[in-house]
Design brief:
The complex is a heterodimer of chains A (198) and B (254).
Chain A lengths: L3 H10 L7 H13 L1 H18 L1 E2 L6 E2 L5 H4 L4 E8 L2 H10 L4 E5 L17 H11 L3 E4 L5 H14 L5 E4 L15 H9 L6
Parallel strand pairs in A: 3-4, 3-5, 5-6
Antiparallel strand pairs in A: 1-2
Chain B lengths: L1 E14 L3 E8 L3 E7 L5 H4 L7 E7 L8 E8 L1 H4 L4 H17 L7 H13 L6 H15 L18 E4 L6 E3 H4 L7 E2 L12 H20 L8 H14 L14
Antiparallel strand pairs in B: 1-2, 1-4, 2-3, 4-5, 6-7, 6-8
Helix pairs in contact in B: 3-5, 3-8, 4-5, 5-7, 7-8
Chain lengths: 198, 254
């Protein structure tokens, strides 16, 4: 039987994404067994994050500075803003290395079922930013789902009066994808967005 | 308990970290919710997109339990419409209206067939906008609030129908309705047997269906019209402009 303090820790850790009660128990035990090499550094890191991390007032990213390191990076192309749903999407796009512009985190997609209306997303902030900073291109990198694309079209309509180019990511075959393993929706989208080879 | 059926995705909510709660319109079992294990995983998200037609196996210990779905895609009409904002909005709207319009676990085989037909025609058939309006009127009928647009409520005439009573949902001819036209709803001619229609008539048809949907279905429960429907009717209104003239068939979408 674990002590109340450890049970409390296990309960808290079990609420984290990717951890169930069993894996939370293993993680908690591991922390208890390595107080100096794991537990203390983790406590310090958590404390530091709690004190230092905030939401960037420009793009919505999480960072210890405001504006965040992405917005403050003068080497980035400041004429282009890539709109993504969540922070993890920003990280994924940035990891790819294929894009060196700025970002804007929307905070989700429009959803009738979840009652997420335009006012629940950071759309006004995007429009103000595009207008104020004279952004030349907005790339809509939202999910290839009905909700994601409905949101993209909605943003396209709202951005139309502003003098900027609005683009979206391509649909189609994933790298390494074999046709016989792909779902019909992906094949439909790829067929419709086919390109001239030469 | 276990049954197999086919269904169309009306909506999805994430449930916990990995699972999803799917709401489907099935052929034999009506609107039915169920848990989809792993439904929130990235590889399964495309499967649960609104409008998708799926093969379903539902399992639960007791019939009244939520149960779990095992799903396989049969058709994914949404992917074809990703670059067509107007058509994509119509697909989302049709599914949201069905979700809002009927109760769970009562079979609506005719409604299922109509939704299946509509999802196959949106963006592919020339007159799909008229189909959409007729679909909403059918949804009202299936929900128990059908309109009588066949004959005049006063004279019994079948020609010259031009208005609908907002109270009874019955049509009247232009001659009968003229003195009360400020209080009556206009009946677009394409719903009264005329074949030709333009976007203005479509907008009128949506307003007609929306009025009765709001009055009988969303209004009594203080619910809002589905967001997807509001967006679609807004796009149609934008297209229709201030008055009649533009034909739906001549409309171009990007």
């Amino acid at each position: 039987m674990a002590a109340n303090e450890i049970e409390h820790l296990i309960r808290l850790m079990g609420r984290l994404p990717g951890l169930g009660p069993r894996s939370a128990r293993r993680a908690a035990l591991s922390l208890m067994k390595h107080p100096d090499t794991l537990l203390r550094p983790l406590i310090e890191a958590l404390g530091t994050c709690r004190d230092a991390i905030s939401i960037c007032s420009t793009c919505g990213n999480l960072d210890s500075h405001d504006p965040c390191s992405v917005c403050a990076d003068r080497d980035r192309d400041r004429d282009v803003v890539c709109v993504v749903q969540e922070v993890e999407d920003l990280w994924a796009m940035d990891r790819s290395g294929s894009y060196r512009g700025l970002f804007h985190i929307l905070g989700g997609t429009l959803s009738a079922l979840d009652g997420r209306h335009p006012e629940h997303l950071r759309i006004t902030a995007l429009l103000e930013r595009v207008e104020k900073d004279g952004i030349g291109e907005v790339i809509l990198a939202l999910g290839a789902t009905v909700d994601g694309q409905t949101t993209a079209h909605y943003l396209g309509e709202r951005l139309r009066p502003l003098a900027c180019r609005v683009t979206r990511l391509a649909y189609g075959l994933p790298v390494g994808g074999e046709l016989n393993y792909l779902d019909q929706g992906t094949l439909d989208a790829a067929m419709k967005a086919r390109q001239l080879l030469a | 308990m276990e049954w197999q059926d086919e269904g169309i995705v009306l909506g999805v909510r994430q449930h916990g970290e990995r699972d999803a709660l799917a709401i489907l319109l099935t052929f034999e079992h009506g609107k039915h919710a169920g848990l989809v294990r792993g439904g929130a995983a990235s590889r399964n998200r495309a499967l649960l997109d609104v409008g998708n037609r799926l093969q379903i196996v539902w399992k639960a210990r007791l019939a009244q339990h939520l149960g779990t779905f095992t799903l396989e895609a049969l058709a994914q009409p949404g992917a074809w419409l990703f670059d067509q904002p107007f058509e994509l909005a119509a697909l989302a709207s049709a599914c949201a209206m069905v979700d809002a319009g009927i109760g769970e676990r009562d079979p609506y085989p005719h409604l299922y067939a109509a939704l299946l037909r509509l999802t196959g025609r949106i963006g592919r058939a020339d007159d799909w906008l008229a189909d959409y309006v007729r679909f909403e009127l059918m949804l009202l009928r299936e929900a128990g609030f059908g309109l009588d647009l066949e004959t005049c409520a006063v004279t019994g005439a079948t020609d010259g129908l031009a208005y609908v009573s907002p109270r009874t949902g019955r049509a009247v001819t232009a001659a009968v309705g003229e003195p009360l036209k400020e209080k009556l709803l206009p009946l677009p001619p394409f719903l009264a047997n005329a074949v030709e229609h333009d976007t203005w008539q479509i907008a009128q048809g949506l307003r007609l269906a929306g009025y009765f949907f709001s009055r009988h279905i969303t209004g009594p429960g203080d619910r809002m019209m589905p967001l997807a429907r509001e967006r679609f009717s807004g796009l149609v209104d934008d297209l229709a402009g201030e008055g009649p003239g533009e034909t739906a068939e001549n409309r171009t979408t990007e």
